[in-house]
């Protein structure tokens, strides 16, 4: 009978004692969260109005990842002197006030190993010890990057890039914003957790490496509790390919330009078959070949090679300069037999009192053998050049 009443009373008494003990200590925040490398304040202040209690000592204990047993590590005496118990660690600094019964401790350059529980103990006379525990949480922001996988043109799905958030705590969320690409791309996400509590999260972006997808802009977004705002890593999908067809076209009266689609951009090299380029008569500037003077010394086959690290391709241009009479029209003929294998372009001009230019382009599809013709007419009045001359250029293309 007695025990039936007594047991609940004892429990109640214990609860009252515990809560009065906790009430005596004021902790500004029950738990402290700090970013690795920052400074943590471990607040602890005794809210004891009873001045008959004398404070003898403040003791700090800790139980951390590094030291899993609860050990004393700092004591503070009445003259504010701080004593390290198990080895000195100058990152800890007592910033409280002993007379004020304030035990607050500062820890600078917080490391992951410092994570754990810190106990602040006030040794009072005559009542004994009063203590409180402050959990310290350490967050670690991730190292982030997007790594390109250098895909080349193809029809099978490949990995375009990986986005990594390495060594974060808590784990990062990594996702791709692929906008209009929709289901043309696919993503997968994996993570590995390490013993020290950090996690590496990797998200991969896959798709078919087509010409169309190259140049598309996507973003890898990394978020987590360690950050106040998300990290956005923009990324442009690149699909690499060697120069495709090489086109030679006339871009002004006397200048040809070589154009090839390639990724990365092609470098161009003009050369002349069998002999060096005539430096006095032609000028080469990157993709451009300029004929400085129309002399028969120019006659011959010129070759433009477009190349990048993935391969090269070339086209040829046949130049023939013939003397002619000063007729009324300067006609320019460009014959381009293009597409897959062979092509030829004939370009002729004659000069006269009235400078008329005509660009005549014939395209021939070597697959079905039919000719399609395109004509580009340009007419201009210019001064007559004393002597007429005629230039014929034949372009032939090799695959
Ligand atoms: C205890 O000391 C710290 C550091 O000096 C101070 O920031 C804090 O306000 C003090 N606590 C109280 C309750 O006075
Ligand atoms: C956690 O462990 C991993 C793997 O051992 C290591 O690469 C990383 O640097 C560690 N992180 C911290 C903050 O100590
Ligand atoms: C080359 O010329 C063909 C025919 O005019 C055209 O379809 C193609 O787009 C051109 N290629 C480049 C790289 O300019
Ligand atoms: C350009 O092409 C010619 C002939 O193929 C070659 O001899 C020369 O080395 C090339 N120049 C460059 C800069 O690649």
Automatic annotation (TrEMBL):
InterPro entries from the UniProt entry: CD80_C2-set, Ig-like_dom, Ig-like_dom_sf, Ig-like_fold, Ig_sub, Ig_sub2, Ig_V-set, Nectin/Nectin-like
Annotated keywords: Cell adhesion, Disulfide bond, Glycoprotein, Membrane, Repeat, Signal, Transmembrane, Transmembrane helix
Domain Ig-like, residue spans: 8-139, 141-232, 234-320
Keyword set includes Ribosomal protein: no
Subcellular location field: Membrane
Signal sequence, renumbered to the chain: 1-24
Pfam families associated with the record: C2-set_2 (PF08205), Ig_3 (PF13927), V-set (PF07686)
Gene Ontology CC: one annotated term: adherens junction
Membrane topology: Single-pass membrane protein
Classification via SMART domains: IG, IGc2, IGv
Listed GO biological process terms: heterophilic cell-cell adhesion via plasma membrane cell adhesion molecules; homophilic cell adhesion via plasma membrane adhesion molecules
Record's keyword annotation contains DNA damage: no
Stretches that traverse the bilayer: 329-349
Family: Belongs to the nectin family.
Record-given protein name: Ig-like domain-containing protein
This protein's encoding gene: VTCN1
